[in-house]
Amino acid sequence: MWREWIPFWRPGVSPYGGDVDLLFAGLLLASALVLGLLFFLLIVFCVRYRAGNPTDRGHRVEKSWHWEVGWTSASLVIFLLLFVWGASVYLEIYQKPQGELSVFVVAKQWMWKVQHPGGQSEINSLHMPVNRPVRLVMASQDVIHSFFIPALRLKHDVVPGRYQSLEIEAITAGHYHLFCAEYCGTDHSGMIGEIVAMEPADYAKWLNDQGPANSLAREGGALFRELGCSGCHAANSSVHAPLLEGLYGKPVPLSDGSTVTADDKYIRDSILLPRSQVAVGYSPVMPSFEGKINEDQLLRLVTYIKSLADRAP
Ligand code: HEC
Ligand SMILES: [Cu+2]
């Protein structure tokens, strides 16, 4: 296989690993051709016009527009093709969420904390089933980190203040490296972990072996009452606030006339920055919870509101 010629190459274990490798090789080849051509001309002219070589130095060539326009448009077309190629691979990888298994990842100095919907949590490792897309909803508690899994040919920045969503899938069971690929402070180099891709049966067993845990949604429900959300959002409340049952995944008309889909990001923003997007027909009376709850609590609230999706409002 041609790929084995690339130094340090390791087989990818994601469905689109081959496409990414091909794109990488294409870019490498295009850059090598440009570099090769430049060096070739450089050397030819060095030899031809070296001191003492009796070559024709008169008759300077007139500037030719044919050449100028020719090479400029040729390189434009070639590099635009690379862009189209890259964009199509990107679109294949970054699809819209469609009800996959979702797992939360919170990055902090200097570790990855992973929480499964059933309440199982782990540090610096992520267990997942093979051949099943997993949606990672990622947040950072402090600075920018970057979630990098070379074997899956995926890297995604985790920026504080918003959710990043990334779909990953492994087609072969095994242990794979997980790195932080954004310098994030003193122990950045130690911010490493592993992805453990398992057969679905082993995965189910692993989840079970983690001992009894409250599901994130249940803990979120408890928080929802503790923090006083239910005081406004309950059906019998005296405050005019939207019911959150059946909200997730639905379009929400906003007071500025636009419409957004109630996804994880929207719910997160509704809790931290309630004033930024106000649902139509309501007054902006909801207090901001920015700084009052941490990422762990936030993701529980979001999971709880997600779990209300199938309930009729
Ligand atoms: C003082 C009453 C009040 C409290 C307390 C409150 N909310 Fe709200 N909430 C509202 C109102 C009013 C709206 C609609 C206006 C808006 O979009 O900001 C709203 C909107 C929302 C939305 C967007 C709903 C939609 O249909 O677009 C979400 C999600 C939400 N709240 C979650 C929460 C959570 C979680 C808590 C607790 C951490 C909470 N709220 C606490 C009054 C409240
Ligand atoms: Cu980091």
Furnish the topology, listing elements before pairings.
Elements: H1 17-48, H2 65-93, E1 101-108, E2 111-115, E3 121-123, E4 125-129, E5 134-140, E6 145-149, E7 154-158, E8 164-168, E9 174-180, E10 193-198, H3 200-209, H4 216-226, H5 229-233, E11 251-253, E12 259-261, H6 264-272, H7 295-307
Parallel strand pairs: 1-5, 4-10
Antiparallel strand pairs: 1-2, 2-3, 5-8, 6-7, 6-9, 9-10, 11-12
Helix pairs in contact: 1-2, 4-7, 6-7
Bound molecules: heme C and copper (II) ion.
The site of heme C has 26 residues, from helix 5, helix 6 and helix 7.
What does this structure look like?
By secondary structure, the protein is of the alpha+beta class. The chain has 3 domains: 2-50 and 62-93; 101-209, Immunoglobulin-like, CATH 2.60.40; 216-307, Cytochrome Bc1 Complex, Chain D, domain 2 (Orthogonal Bundle), CATH 1.10.760. It is 35% helix and 20% strand. It contains 7 helices and 12 strands. It has helices spanning 17-48, 65-93, 200-209, 216-226, 229-233, 264-272, 295-307, and strands at residues 101-108, 111-115, 121-123, 125-129, 134-140, 145-149, 154-158, 164-168, 174-180, 193-198, 251-253, 259-261. The strands form 3 sheets. The protein has a 5-stranded mixed beta sheet with strand order 3-2-1-5-8, with helices on one face. A hairpin with a 4-residue loop joins strand 6 (145-149) and strand 7. Helix 4 packs across helix 7 and helix 6 crosses helix 7. The mean pLDDT is 86. The structure holds heme C and copper (II) ion (CU). Heme C binds next to helix 5, helix 6 and helix 7.
